[in-house]
TrEMBL record:
Pathway: Metabolic intermediate metabolism; propanoyl-CoA degradation; succinyl-CoA from propanoyl-CoA: step 1/3
Cofactor: biotin
Protein name, per record: propionyl-CoA carboxylase
Position of the signal peptide: none
InterPro entries the UniProt entry points to: ATP-grasp (IPR011761), BC-like_N (IPR005481), Biotin_BS (IPR001882), Biotin_carboxylase_complex (IPR050856), Biotin_carboxylation_dom (IPR011764), Biotin_COase_C (IPR005482), Biotin_lipoyl (IPR000089), CPAse_ATP-bd (IPR005479)
A Pfam family recorded for this sequence: PCC_BT
Lipoyl-binding domain residues: 594-670
Amino acid sequence: MFTKILIANRGEIACRVIRTARKMGIATVAVYSDADRDALHVEMADEAVHIGPSPAAQSYLVPEKIIAACKATGAQAVHPGYGFLSERAAFCEALEAEGVVFIGPKPKAIKAMGDKIESKKFANAAEVSTVPGWLGVIENADHAEKIAGEIGYPVMIKASAGGGGKGMRIAWDRSEVRDGFDRARSEAKSSFGDDRVFIEKFVVDPRHIEIQVLADAHGNALYLGERECSIQRRNQKVAEEAPSPFLDAKTRKAMGEQSVALARAVDYQSAGTVEFIVDKDKNFYFLEMNTRLQVEHPVTELVTGIDLVEQMIRVAAGEKLAIKQSDVKLNGWAVESRLYAEDPYRNFLPSIGRLTRYRPPEEGQFGDIVIRNDTGVTEGSEISMFYDPMLAKLCTWASTRLEAIDAMSEALDSFVVDGIEHNIPFLAALMQHPRWRKGEISTGFIAEEYPDGFAPVVPNSEERAVLASIVTAVELLRRDRLDRLGGRLAPHSGALKRDWVVKIGEDYLPVSIIEGMVSIPMEIDLSIDGCKALTVSSDWRPGDLIWRGTVGKRRVAAQIRPVANGLRIAWKGMSVTARAMLPRTAELERLMPDKVAPDTSKLLLCPMPGLVVSIAVAEGQEVKAGETLAVVEAMKMENVLRAERDLVVAKLNAKPGDSLAVDAVIMEFA
């Protein structure tokens, strides 16, 4: 067994590998760029080596720097994590030439499966079911249009060396092929240094289901069940679960056996994933094989009890698998939510900045529930524009699917992140969505259910009562605390007021205190909007970021943050401003004029912090609705900004190469 390994990665996956290596008694070496000098993975590792500037192309993607770090520290093996160099056969060969073990498959398997075009050809030869498509060289956009027409729309345009949703576009008709081809090639070139793309039939309403395989160098190979990864946005996974709520035992077995056969055909030796798209009739088609550890591997670990990173290390060290196919049992259900640094209210555009607060829910087993959080950041970490926007992978396990989902819902409500925008509100709303809870999903779920983007969930009458109860309880304690301050001539509040009004958004709800006193812990009976009294119980104290308690028979964990004259409450995808006040105050507040937002209709604002890739117009140019104005790159994704109406460009305020902050003015219109 190795005594020291180097992790050629960063963020949460580097931290994840370090945890398992530490458990196995193996010393670890971290590598870091300028941007990651103070990163969590650097702090966790036994040693750390600086490998260059912040851009990945000058640090994490330079094999020579990784090899030099191995030589300098005496690392015997390298775990590549995912992304970066994890699927580069040349990197694997370079390590072997230096006597360093690559913790992953051999170059033969990487070459056979790592290239999407070649993997399709290989899968066809091995009689694996594949999607109809064109696997040859696509010369230009005209050629792409011709191929797409022959296959039949819709088609998927994908980077051959792609991954993570980058270099991927769907074209629903001929008009979308050319732009999709150009964007896919451009993203592929900038992300992977390889602009080859291929085209295949896009299966309508597919489910994305993948099989985890594990194989050693002694001819042993097995599958560890499946993961459902259908909740995707821009072809990037958002939430995953194991097992799939869609598969039956027969289909699971067939997919698993086919995946193992493919792994054997390329002499696969490590953990790997065979991805399929599955139609409504449970017909499945090979999509690709990821010759590395998947981002969503924790859900498989939770339902099988098998540490995949440990197995990868043991296989790389030459050990035989100690597990047989008959040993693999799927126990319970696991759900994973990917927490991204992005603004769900601005079409999920990236967000950067410092984490002024980062307080995940407590990890461990709590009764019949398990909570796990794989992360690579901590409070105070800087989220930069150079890398993937993922902050953490929050996972829950329970004996049933709905119990795991409910546990995830409460864990998300308890996950505090401040300083940047993040997608927790969307994830929390997803956990309540009827289609998700029923398992009636496809890869088009987000586009279908949120066609106009995500907006805060509007509370119903029962939820408004919960929110009103929280803000009333908090206000009562706030006033009681003021009354107890020393040096006051008279109490601030006087005797307990029984009648209140709570404003939630633009609604005013009368609240009456039926019974109870102000104390910690608190238990009071409230009547909301004239309805039957609810018992509200909580041990919340002023300063706590999470209000925990019960409202009626409902358990509640909601995040509260003070705002001017009230609270901002985040709960189950809702984000509301609420204020508890006396009836006379509410009467006067109704007379206050509304604040009018500034007019930005004649400005093109940068929707996210990013780099201007191109400006497609000139000053004085007339532009039609839908035409491209500019392309902005953020966190390796290119975002096309289009005209929302016919207009004339009056002034350009930015040029290609400019680094812009959110809401920076790119151009002005006449």
